[in-house]
Amino acid sequence: MKKISILIIEDDKFILKAMQSKFKQANFLVKASSSAEEGLKILAKLKPDAIILDILLPGINGYEFLEEIKKDPVWNKIPVIIASNLSEDPEITVKENKGYVDYVVKSELDLDDLVSRTKKIIALQ
Amino acid sequence: MFPWKKASRGIHLNIIFLILAIITPVILFIFYLSFTQLKKAEEAEINRLKSSAVLVSTEYSQIVEGVRQLLITLSISEQTVGPNCSSYLTGLLERYQRYSNISFANPSGDVLCSGVPLTKDVKVTDRLFFKSTISSKTFSVGEYSLGPVTNKPIITFGHPYLNAQGALLGVVYASIDLKWLGRLTQELEINTREEVLVLDWKGKALASYPDKVGLTGKIFPGSLNAGINKTIGFDGVEKIYVLEKIGTLKDGPLVAVGMTEADIHKGANDEFRKAILIAIIIGLFSIIIGYIIGSSIIKRIISEFDKIEELRRSFVTLASHQLRTPLTGIKYLSEILISESTGRLNVNQKEFVKDIQTSTHRLISMIGTLLNISKLELETPTLLIETVNISKIFNEERKSINMLLKRNKISFKFANKKSESIFVYADPKLIRQAVSILITNAAKYSDAESTVTVAILNKKNNSIVSVTNTGILIEQDELPHLFDKFFRGKGALKKNEEGSGLGLYLCKLIINVHKGNLVVSQKKNREITFTFSLPII
Fold this sequence. Notes:
Chain A is α/β, with parallel strands linked by helices and 125 residues long. Helix content of chain A is 41%, strand content 20%. Chain A is built from five helices and five strands; from the N terminus they run E-H-E-H-E-H-E-H-E-H. Chain A has helices at 13-25, 36-45, 62-71, 95-98, 111-124; strands at residues 4-9, 28-33, 50-53, 80-84, 102-105. A five-stranded parallel β-sheet of chain A has the order 2-1-3-4-5, with helices on both faces. Chain A starts with a strand and ends with a helix. Chain B is 50% helix and 21% strand. Chain B has helices at 3-75, 78-81, 85-95, 128-136, 178-187, 261-339, 347-376, 390-400, 402-408, 428-444, 490-495, 503-513; strands at residues 99-105, 111-114, 140-146, 153-162, 168-177, 195-199, 205-209, 227-232, 238-245, 254-259, 386-389, 411-414, 423-426, 451-459, 462-470, 517-522, 527-535. In chain B, a hairpin with a 6-residue loop joins strand 3 (140-146) and strand 4. The radius of gyration of chain B is 56 Å and the shape is rod-shaped. The model of chain B has no long low-confidence stretch (mean pLDDT 84). The A-B interface holds A 12, 14-15, 17-19, 21-22, 25, 56, 85-88, 90, 92-93, 105-108, 110-112 and B 317, 320-321, 324-333, 335-336, 339, 341-342, 364, 367-368, 371, 375, 382, 384, 429.
């Protein structure tokens, strides 16, 4: 069976390391990047089953990254889970239009929860 | 609502009071000056009336004196009693046009000579001037009448004609045409608001200015006392009249100069009104300008405060985010450690990692509390309102404090039937936080082996929720401060040194933004109950 692939875009190296470790342990194929630009390069080579995206990033931010992938007919079908430490998106009610399927506050969530939520979202696709 | 915004409402009113306090004395002073001017102007008007009366009286005195001189001359002239007396008098009439007739009558009153030719026999026995002259044997004045010869309205003056021995031979008399009197009044150029009357001693009008048709011969209805009288005039209107006698004659004519009080005040009133208008304009102008300036100052102050508040808020948001990131790193990495996916931990290591997790969790939750407070202190916080099953939230949150309950040997019970669901309309995350704060506090501060009781019931349109526990004694003077920011009671400090003093403050904020209310009550047996109400759907 093909492994579920995931792209994590997160600029904090410790969080990235922890996420990577957890998702690998959960048998995901993990691609990690610490910037949105790098994430786009990875996307060009591999279409992941889901993207975990931080908002505050160096260079282009998470929302700008979303704008970019929305333009591509293939990428815009990939479910995006925003994992930020900003309190919930004030415009959370229009998340469909923003191009993401879930918004989580990293500090309020266990890695276990993140993995199970991601699995659920991919299963729904 | 920030306190400075509430305060600014009162300040607007204060500004108006301040302006009023400044301009009221100025306006009162203007009024005082105007009022003094008003009195002065009134006096000036009365004085003018007096001088008009004197002026008119003097003019008429000269006429009367003229008549007297003429009659004295005639009373010693042979020609007055001579055979050609009538033509002599006719000659005089042609020379002095103010006279309507000059005549001579014998002591019986028979008119012997007349400047105006007689068409029939005329007797003047009954006429006042004749009777007065006969009895006083001096220059006398009659009253208004229609001339028996000329049939014109006239006033007649008489003078006795005595012979060398002093015996009365007759009376010379001259009548003045009243129209001529009126003309004289006109020539004096009296103020048009003044009414000038020439009256005979009985009050009959001889002449008037402004000239009124049909007035001549009518009796003046008011008082005839010399001096200033407030009395009714011919037109039935009350006026201030200055009466002045003409000449020194007994029963001689009078001059009355009158003006209505309104007219006397009119000039003065106009000035007074002008002053009041200016005072009102100054007043309104000051209030408007003062209010505009004051308001803009308040606006600037408020906007400065708002900027500071905005800065504080964005600082809290940013700082929270910055703090959360490294904490998340610790949280995630310790989670991986404890899962032992990277290798087994010994008992001590496991315990330490758990301690790291507890501390991390506390820090993260404190940051969440600060962020929520910062958000809810906004004038219009964003709430994500939906239908919330409040009983369910209590059940779920109870599970999260199970460990704490077990450790402190505290039992937890619902006063309601478990199946009962009560729905409110609220932001679920916030309500969950409020519930969590209340039951965590109850579990933390309860006596060992006591019970925490939760009761949820519907009352009218509200859901009433209460959390009761028995534990530390809160002193009476501490109760009102329990919901203050950073407040921690003495009992709480003793029992549990951890705690930010923000929990109950946030809890009240959450309930308040849902238009509900949170209160606390304590019984003597240290049983404390927190009760909040939320509107039901």
